[in-house]
Amino acid sequence: MTARLRRLAVLVGFELRGLLRDRKTVVLTVLLPLLVMPLLVFGTRKLEAQRDEEDRARVFGYAIDERDAAWIAQALAEGLRALPELERPQLREVSRDDPTMDVSVAVGRDSEVATIELAYHGNVHQSRLAMEGMSRALAAARKGRVVAALHDAGFPGDPATFVVVTERDVASAIHRAGARLGTWLTPVLVMMLMFGGQLAALDTLAGERERGTLETLLTTAVDRGDVVLGKWLTVFVVALINASMSFLSLWAYARWGAVESLPDASIALTPSMWVWLALLCGALAWLVSAVLLAVSGTARTYKEAQLYVGVATLALAMLGAASLLGSLRWQLAFAFLPVANVSLAVREVLAGRPDALLLVVTIAVDLAVGGALARWVVRALHEERLIVGTVDVGTLRGEAALRRATPAWVAGTWAIFMLGALLWPGLDLRLQLLFNLVGLMLAGSLILALRQRVALRELWGLRWPNPWAFLGVVLGVPSGLVLVGGLARLLEPYVGMPTRMQTELEALFLGADLPLWQQLLWMAVLPGVCEELYFRGFLMFGLRDRLRPVARCLVVAAIFGAFHLMLSRLLPTATLGVFLGATRLLAGSTIPAIAWHALHNGAALGLSSVGDESVTFPAWAYAIAVVGLVTAFAVLWRFRQSVDPKES
Hints:
By secondary structure, this protein is mainly α. It has helices spanning 2-20, 23-57, 66-82, 125-152, 173-211, 213-218, 224-255, 271-298, 302-320, 340-350, 356-382, 398-423, 429-452, 456-459, 469-495, 501-510, 516-542, 549-562, 567-587, 591-609, 619-638; strands spanning 59-63, 90-93, 101-108, 115-119.
């Protein structure tokens, strides 16, 4: 044991000395955390202050019919006088065809009570601010007129003084500051760990493989497991140094008062809180270093590793952003979700609500996942899959080249999905569907197939199945719909997202006046065809040499859920993906999976249109659904038709 520790110390020291010679590593690991974390906090504060100042200086335009303009203007004037000075918006009346119009006001008199409708553009910041300011002003005017009317009727005093409501925050200043700090600390820390450790990780495997030194190292007497462990510890040390520098710089800037947005209470932590935070951050650094090492070991070239690191950074940042979801409660179920469990745990510890059992489970899970990734790299080295002298990527052609490019292609597609959702959240849903489904998925896989000269029939699995497979689909669709919907409702209290959100999005983007056939086209047929050709066709074809059928079905289902970019839909959508993947493998064709997907979406759309999407089924209904699903797959198994031995 002592000899092995000495070997590991020599390996780690050798790797660290090599990294210290690289100025980029020193800058990213030591100097960057000293500047980035405080600048991020300071910059956010400055941007918020600048935005608030700009919002107060804005002049909002509103349009209204001439017959109602006078009394609306009077009501707005009364309301603006009643509002505090900082909450008063600057308003001016404009015509409806004026490009500076932010809000359109309509007065309804269909009933005894007049109604005022403020029409605005929710995806435009200025229009939304105008609506909120006018709504506050009109509410203040209404309150003033109600009080005046009560006074005229002989009602003494202000009605608001009869019942006085006071507020008292029982949370301490430390816990309030910790709750604010904990919401964004983990996402930023994940990004810093990935950026700081990527150079060390990429150079240890991908870089050495490209230079030819990895093969030389593995021919020495040192055990390959010790080689991987030494490289992993090197990346872990670099990531830990990066995290420590980030925390130290943040603490120092806050202590010196250089960053006013960090309250003094945020650094007044108890010893137990410091211990838990150190253990959580250590577990996170352990896992991130294992992810970086696995990415470096998976890629064949340094450039390919850089692409994988970008995708892995986005994925880990999404998991780390779990703390930003205020309604997401820290429970045992989330303690088994790597990175997200640390994000929620850090928030709870800083808020003064630590749970020792959940903290221990969280740390153990992240350590176990990191260890499993490292063991995978060790096995790959023993099988000589990560050593120089494998396949020259430039010589690959046809199906081999397409399968080789599939992971990077899918990762790039997912990254574009994510960027599109972040940059254009208010884009019309039909344009999103055309771009994502037709442009990225269908056209993207088509271009790759034509470039590598792979037959589309093989790529997309477009073979005519046994007709009895459609009987299994007919039996499986209603059963799957009940089970997937029940799972979504079961998860609703934990993820904080209502299951009917998709229905509201459809109503918002598609509009109630869209004919039913067009709704079915956009929400059922188009996703059913494009997504199945991409996931159960292109992706399952591309992973055929990498994974066994069951593993391939589960991996594709998980990717299918991740592409929907919504935490509330991740597990239900992945469950549906398992059903569709199993149908694709048993039928030997994507056509039954396309039919199942389209019918599922169409049935869900039909239920939402009649308002029955929130129905809670009794237990016996779920039991019948399970029996129906088993029967459906029994039919598919009985008449299975696999054209490839690897899919049997």
